[in-house]
Design goal:
single chain, alpha/beta, three-stranded parallel β-sheet, 8 helices
Amino acid sequence: MEWKYPIIDVHGHIIPGVDDGSRTMEESVEMLELAASQGITAAFATPHCPRHGRPPETNKKREELERLISQKIGEFPIYSGHETFYHEGLLEQLRKGDARTLAGSKYVLVEFRPDTPYTTLFRGLRSLSNAGYVPVLAHMERYGCLRKEQNLTDLLGSGCWLQMNYDSIQGSFFNSEVRWCRKQIQKGRIRLMGTDMHRLNFRPPDIKRALEWLDGHVEPEQLQKLLYGNPMRIVENK
């Protein structure tokens, strides 16, 4: 299917040679070409941010990647960022600039261990909010504690944004995990979608089946916000 809305991918490991994502600039370009062929028109580069020491400088590689992919397919913005792992020193990393927010905004993409207790997860996200950031919980579907309805409701009430991976809604209706993820989107709880692309042979950008389901089950206005409007709010720091 030819997708009719612009899509901004908010989560991808596309900077080569800095984490467990892309290995070469050529692989990064190929992944983005594949993403663009499915309707993605811009992406955030979100390499993992190390907990200790300064992260590698990635701006030059990001700018080179943007130049190379734009030469291939036309304008394709690539925004800066990190996928941060929550720990007690994260706020200090953010203040020093060692951990990057998304596109230099107040939004912070943050992950936890999947088995993190809800009280720990909530406390960490609240600490970011209290410091003036908007936490974006990466691949929220991985956290078992959020299967409890009250926990999810409380977290949404705290101002946290939830990001879900496209892979999580691709699959059979008879898969209870797929059904749960789709339900969260239909309830309007998910603000952002991401490929979480890593490599051509490991978690490549493949969103066709997800887009087909979204097109048939989500209202156009909500869908436009999910795939483009909300990511642009981050870019514009609104």
